[in-house]
Amino acid sequence: MTAPRDDRRVRLATWPTPLEPAPRLSESIGLRAGDLRLKRDDLTGLGAGGNKIRKLEWTVGAAVADGADVLITTGAPQSNHARLTAAAAARLGLDSVLVFPGDPRPFVGNLLLDALLGTDIEWIGPIDGGSDTQTELDAAAQRVADRLRRQGRHPAIIPFGGSNSVGAHGYRLAGHEILEQAPNVDLVVCAVGSGGTMAGLVAGLGADHVLGVDTGAVPDAADRVRHILGGMDGVSATAALRIRTDQVGAGYESLAAGARHASTISARTEGLVLDPTYSARALAGLVAAVADGDVVPGTDVVFLVSGGLPGLFGHPQAQDLTVD
Ligand SMILES: *Cc1c(COP(=O)(O)O)cnc(C)c1O
Fold first, then answer.
1. Distance of CA 167 to CAs 81, 212, 220, Å?
2. Could you give the angle at the alpha carbon of 132 between the alpha carbons of 127 and 137, nearest 5°?
């Protein structure tokens, strides 16, 4: 498959995002002061920002080019991708529908912003233990699309997390953006959820230069990343991926011990507030990689701050962060 064409992109943010030093955090995790820099993809503005914007520029761009007037997507109830899909729709004058598992939940965190952004939320009820959540959500999204088509609308389904080869192209370009800001970068560290961010970075920088930290969002993160890479132009889908799986804790929705620690050190050394689900897990993965010698002092590291802060205010265990 060839790379998406530039005329099928919508601009949803101002690029490049900043690259900032983080000397106190760097030293506190056992690196040299100058080793670690922060790629501030939380500062993408629209809809409270985050990494999903780079992918949405391409997936929504394709939908708009094909005549869509309503965007449909799926995710967990605290999905940052869903919130930003609703924000992109608002910005572009489209409607949006978010399809979530379970029963209606209180409007906190991302859900509060979803409501504010004027999206329609479809709760599909509890998913029975024998079924795959994503399969059920995809089927529900198709039903919503069929219903809208019967009403004369032109719906487009944006994939889970925006993570197909089209969306991942946004992170391939982010890899190039990082190379312009940090020509000697050895390693970019990112969280892995639906996999498009890591896949794009691997496409842009090479597999050796990307360390992904699994958040437990999907059953097999490496498989997901490889699958997306397989649909991208001019990349090897067989290169050995560097993915740590030691930061999932009790599961995607839990506050993992490493993430809890990482949140505290980033806040207290740099005033940098991470989200407990993704970026704190990613930093915890870097902490663990330095501790076990996978990343050594003198390495030029860029840590992707990927946004997601609204999730902190919707996290069931957020109060645990207030006790040492
Ligand atoms: C979704 C998300 C990620 C992971 O990105 P994927 O492309 O889904 O793997 C990282 N950080 C935040 C804050 C996210 O919302």
1. 12, 18, 19
2. 65
Q: Which atom of ligand 1 is nearest to the CA of 190?
A: 10
The distance in angstroms from the start CA to the end CA of the chain is 50
Burial class, 129, CB count within 10 angstroms (exposed 0-12 / middle 13-18 / buried 19+): exposed
> From the CB of 197, is ligand 1 less than 6 Å away?
yes
Segments of the chain with pLDDT less than 70: 1
Distance CA 95, CA 307 (A): 24
pTM above 0.85, yes or no: yes
Quick one: pLDDT at residue 37?
98
User: In whole angstroms, how large is the CA radius of gyration of the chain?
Assistant: 19
80 close to ligand 1 (CB < 6 Angstrom)? yes
| Euclidean distance between CA atoms 21 and 34, whole angstroms | 7
CA 141 – ligand 1 centroid, Å = 21
**Cβ(201)–Cβ(174) below 8 Å:** yes
- Rounded distance between C-alpha atoms, residue 49 and residue 62, angstroms: 21
The secondary structure of 100-125 as a DSSP string is: ESBS---S-THHHHHHHTT-EEEE-B
Residue 152 CA to residue 49 CA, distance in Å, equals 32
Structural domains in the chain, CATH included, are: 6-51+163-322 (3.40.50.1100), 52-161 (3.40.50.1100)
Q: pLDDT tens digits, residue range 136-150?
A: 999 999 999 999 999
Q: Say if CB 71 and CB 94 are below 8 A apart.
A: yes
Position 1 scores a pLDDT of 62
Residue 52 Cα to ligand 1 midpoint, Å, equals: 7
